[in-house]
């Protein structure tokens, strides 16, 4: 059964997100595939952060997260956030960003983003689910091709899950 599940999910080509947050002066962010809207009324979104990630440790003490969608022409941005860890490099020195709502780091080259309040955290196994209430953001009229799993599945993650 596990084999079938592993095979099935490996065939999916879901959109990738960059999730950022900040605790005090410390910004953090990583590439996230385990993320989805989970309710319409009220609007809710769940983002899964690996317990090993620098981003998780910062998010553990944060009240808000920002969720970004990245177009394929900016795939390098997604690769930066998935291939490097904030434990070793300052990813935010390598990309353009500004301070947004609640002091959240907002990536200038994102195609769209929203900021959400962390309502609760769920221990899911090797990841923790952050349940978000979307508060504000920026949405274009449409997207070009977004970065999806197949664009980044060759990447060596900054941290193993
Ligand atoms: C295809 C792919 C999917 C990933 N999905 C997630 C995810 O859903 N949640 C997560 O926390 N990390 C995920 N990662 C791993 C992190 O993005 C990666 O380990 C990152 O370097 C961690 O950075 P940090 O230590 O600065 O937080 C994924 C990486 C790749 C390549």
Quick overview of this protein structure:
By secondary structure, the chain is an alpha+beta fold. Helices cover 17% and strands 39% of the residues.
Could you describe the 3D structure shown?
By secondary structure, the chain is α+β, with helices and mostly antiparallel strands. It has helices at 2-10, 54-59, 75-83, 149-152; strands spanning 17-23, 26-32, 35-39, 44-50, 64-69, 97-99, 105-107, 112-123, 127-138. The strands form 2 sheets. Strands 2-1-5-8-9-4-3 form a 7-stranded antiparallel β-sheet. A two-stranded antiparallel sheet has the order 6-7. Strand 6 (97-99) and strand 7 (105-107) form a beta hairpin. The model has no long low-confidence stretch (mean pLDDT 96). Bound molecules: flavin mononucleotide. Flavin mononucleotide is lined by residues 28, 30-34, 48-50, 53-55, 82-87, 127, 149, 152-153, 155, 157-159.
């Amino acid at each position: 059964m596990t084999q079938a599940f592993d095979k099935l999910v490996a065939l999916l080509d879901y959109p990738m997100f960059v999730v950022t947050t900040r605790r005090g002066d410390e910004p953090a962010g990583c590439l996230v595939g385990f993320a989805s809207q989970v309710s319409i009324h009220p609007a809710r979104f769940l983002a899964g952060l690996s317990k090993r990630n620098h981003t998780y440790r910062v998010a553990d003490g944060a009240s808000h997260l920002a969720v970004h969608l990245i177009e394929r022409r900016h795939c390098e941005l997604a690769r930066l956030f998935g291939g490097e860890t904030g434990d070793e490099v300052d990813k935010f020195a390598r990309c353009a960003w500004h301070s947004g709502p609640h002091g959240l780091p907002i990536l200038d080259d994102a195609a769209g983003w929203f900021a959400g309040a962390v309502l609760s955290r769920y221990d899911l196994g090797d990841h923790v689910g952050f349940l978000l209430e979307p508060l504000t953001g920026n949405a274009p009229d449409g997207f070009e091709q977004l970065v999806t799993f197949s664009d980044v599945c060759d990447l060596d993650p900054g941290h193993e899950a």
